[in-house]
Amino acid sequence: MIEPLVLLPEMMCDARLFEPQINSLSRQRAVTVAPISLGERIEEIASSLLDQLPRRFALAGSGMGGVVALELVRRAPDRVSRLCLMATDAQADTPQTAAAREELLVAAKMGRLEEVMRRIISSNTLAPGPRRIPILNDLVAMALDLGPEVFERQIRALQRRPDQQGELRRIKVPTLVLCGAHDTLTPLRKHTFMSELIPGADLKVLDEAGHLPTLEAPDFVNDVLTDWLSAPARAAYV
């Protein structure tokens, strides 16, 4: 039986973040995009998802979705067959970062969610080129559709999230770490750090992408994910 694939999006994103991957990968397997907006703690979000997800599945998360993915692996390692982390940070918020998020919350509640999203994921977090602005506009459209209440829940979850660095060495499934070379929000050094701690992890750097690789370099991401999904379950540990 071909294992289903569960995709977890970046904060304030929905299935549109993975549209190229859904179109490509769903030809061979069931592909589900699960929401990460039902809770104000990463642990709460993960717990609610486990009640809805298949018995066993491949798991890929982008940004905040990667943070939730790590919590899912920690809670139910027997249910995750393989793991992909994209544009993700395993570290907890510093007190300074957590405090800075309060200003963003206030602005979003005052009706300035678009401005806030353009501050969080600005053009300099993506690869240069003609597609940069359209992709940012797509991001803003997703965020506005989700709205300020979801934004508040997700910001609270990020502020309170546990530091997951200590859990990285405990991951026992084949793991792919994807990083856009132009990502200034979760830069290469963070992905290198994660890949070095996760046993057998494979690090792939996308030269033509930044923080949203699934939209910036969809063909490359599709190819890399296909290889990751095709590899034998023990390939990372041979």
Written account of the structure:
Helix 4 (about 95-110) runs antiparallel to helix 7 (about 150-160). The chain has helices at about 20-25, 40-50, 65-75, 95-110, 115-120, 130-145, 150-160, 165-170, 190-195, 215, 220-230; strands at about 5-10, 30-35, 55-60, 80-85, 175-180, 200-205. The chain contains eleven helices and six strands. Strand 3, helix 3 (about 65-75) and strand 4 form a beta-alpha-beta unit. The mean pLDDT is about 95. It has one domain: Rossmann fold (3-Layer(aba) Sandwich), CATH 3.40.50. With about 240 residues, it is an alpha/beta fold.
Total of DSSP H or I helical runs spanning 4+ residues:
11
For the biggest sheet, the summary is: 6 strands, parallel
- The CATH architecture can be named as 3-Layer(aba) Sandwich
CATH class: Alpha Beta
Secondary-structure map with pairings?
Layout (H helix, E strand, L loop, with lengths): L4 E4 L10 H7 L5 E3 L8 H9 L6 E6 L1 H12 L4 E7 L8 H15 L3 H8 L11 H15 L1 H13 L4 H4 L6 E6 L7 H10 L4 E5 L6 H4 L1 H13 L8
Parallel strand pairs: 1-2, 1-3, 3-4, 4-5, 5-6
Brief description of this entry?
This protein has 238 residues and is an alpha/beta fold.
Task: List the main descriptive attributes of the protein structure presented here.
Rossmann fold, 11 helices, 46% helix, alpha/beta, 238 residues, six-stranded parallel beta sheet
